[in-house]
Amino acid sequence: MWPRGRKGWLLILLIVLAVALTAAQTRALNRGRPSPLEAPAILLLKPFQNCVTAVSRAWDSAIGGTDSRLSLAAENRQLREQVSLLTVKNAHLSHIAAENARLRAMLSMKQHDPSGARWIVADVLERHPSHWFDMLTLDCGRSAGVRQHSIVLTTRGLVGKVVVVRSDTCDALLITDPASDTGAFVPRTRDVGYVEGTGHQEMTLHFFDRDHGVRVGDSVVSSPFSATYPSGISIGKVTAITKDAGASVSQASIQPSVQFNDLGEAIVIP
Amino acid sequence: MSSPDFRRSLRYSGLLMGLVVIAAAIQTRLPSGLEWRGVAPDLALAIAIAAGLHDGSMTGAAMGFLGAYLIAPQASLSPGSIYFSHILVGYLSGFPRARLYTENPLVPVAAGLAAGVLSETFFYLLTPRSPLLWIQGAAVQGLYLMALTPVIHALLHSLGRMMESGA
Predict the structure, then answer these.
(1) Which of A77, A203, A235, B33 has its CA 20 to 30 A from that of A61?
(2) What pLDDT shows up at residue A75?
(3) Mean pLDDT, to the nearest integer, of B61-66?
(4) pLDDT tens, position by position, B99-126
(5) Which residue ranges form the domains of chain A, and what is each CATH number?
């Protein structure tokens, strides 16, 4: 397939291209914008991604319908098809009702926001394709006023912050990512510290004061001293405390308030 | 290179690239749906490995590059690691082709496992993070690629034969 004697040069060319693309993307990332060299890749993938999404939705819908039919056939064979249809419709309505409830909760949160900041409700487009970074892509970008370091949250609690902004989408780094440090506050004891991601669905709370009174079950919110996040946003609950006699500080395991795996929408505060 | 050979080669390359694009679209749109133990299979890498095994190092490296180019914009914090792990693993996958009898189905199985571990190791060396993430990623990605590579390799083999008989 490749011309003989030129394979070495082709490999070098690929590596040079990779270096150039990496440099362009890293430089663009530091400015919080996508690299223009990424545009062809995004354009090329988009129609295929839309097909994948459509097939996935059709599959989910078919599986839901089949399950319903099987369970109802045992009760009444003659009404199977009708019940199946109603079940599918009902599932669709339940999805809409759940979405409505979540959006209402977001609206209520917005009405109680004392700062009066503008909020953007965005759909989660995708989770990051690598397990090395906990990130997700949202369907709002520069055109909606999103900026680098904009805050992302849900009605349940803090999600993370925006690290890359494109014209119509943005990438948010989750608080569960190891690169994420979040100032934390335990309202019951007024202890402060910072929460660090572990790359898994749990985080570690490092206390500034060794003699804290935090217990399992205490809720943890964003710190009033945080320069990044607004104070008082729920981060999670304490599930375990490490009391290491040799260490100068102790730690706690935190279960996040937000279920990141089934996140459908999120609020972005520009 | 004769004209029918060149056309066949072009058609085959187009098909390979199409496969990489589809794999990248699935990988970037459904990562949580494909996840097991927090790790999603790297489908584009599986195609690069199978292409390397079937068609040689340069094809593996080129498909690795294409897959990385498509995935890197969605992986904004680690583009370099993605490029280099995909290109190098795709390139190295061509080595067994030159040294082993690749009709043996165990070769793609072993190559997939080794390539999964190798790509996660490259990634870990280029983007140092928790060793636990690396061990988990290497183990799970190795298993994924061990299962996927023979299937894709067999598909490429059939495609190659179909094109030869059709030409």
Answers:
(1) A77
(2) 60
(3) 93
(4) 655 567 788 888 888 888 888 888 788 7
(5) 37-111 (no CATH), 118-270 (2.40.10.340)
Q: Which of B67, B84, B60 is nearest to B20 (CA)?
A: B67
> Which of B9, B20, B28 has the most A C-beta neighbours within 10 Å, making it the best mutation to test the interface with A?
B28
Measured between CB atoms, which of A11, A34, A41 is closest to B58? A11
Domain parsing of chain B, residue ranges: 3-166
Q: Which amino acid is at A179?
A: A
- Burial class for A26, CB neighbours closer than 10 Å (0-12, 13-18, 19+): middle
Residue of B153, B166, B151 whose CA lies nearest to B59 = B153
| Cβ contact A197:A223 at 8 Å | no
Q: Which pLDDT does position A85 carry in this prediction?
A: 66
Tokens 């060299």 -> residue:
A37
Cβ separation A49–B25 shorter than 8 A: yes
Please check whether residue A71 is in contact with residue A86, taking contact to mean a CB–CB distance below 8 angstroms. no
Q: How far is A212 from chain B (nearest CA, A)?
A: 28
Which residues of chain A have a CB within 8 Å of the CB of B55? Answer: 1
Structure confidence at residue A212 (pLDDT): 79
The pLDDT value recorded for residue A239 is: 93
- Rg of chain A's alpha carbons, rounded to an integer? 23
Q: Measure CA of the first residue to CA of the last residue in chain B; give whole Å.
A: 15
Pairing state between β A158-165 and A170-174: antiparallel
What is the rounded average pLDDT of the residues B28-55? 82
Residues of A in contact with B138 (CB under 8 A): none
Residue B44: which residues within 8 A CB-CB, separation 6 or more?
B20, B23, B24, B27, B63, B66, B67, B68, B70, B71, B86
Between chains, do A56 and B30 touch, taking CB under 8 Å as contact? yes
What averages of pLDDT result for each successive group of 10 residues across chain A (270 residues)? 68 86 78 74 83 79 65 61 68 73 70 67 76 81 89 89 88 88 89 86 84 87 85 90 69 89 83
**What average pLDDT does the segment B137-162 reach?**
88
Q: For residue B136, name the pLDDT band (cuts at 50, 70, 90).
A: confident
Q: Which of residues 139-168 of A touch B (CB under 8 A)?
A: 163-164
CATH label, B3-166, candidates 1.10.10, 1.10.1760, 3.30.70, 1.10.530: 1.10.1760
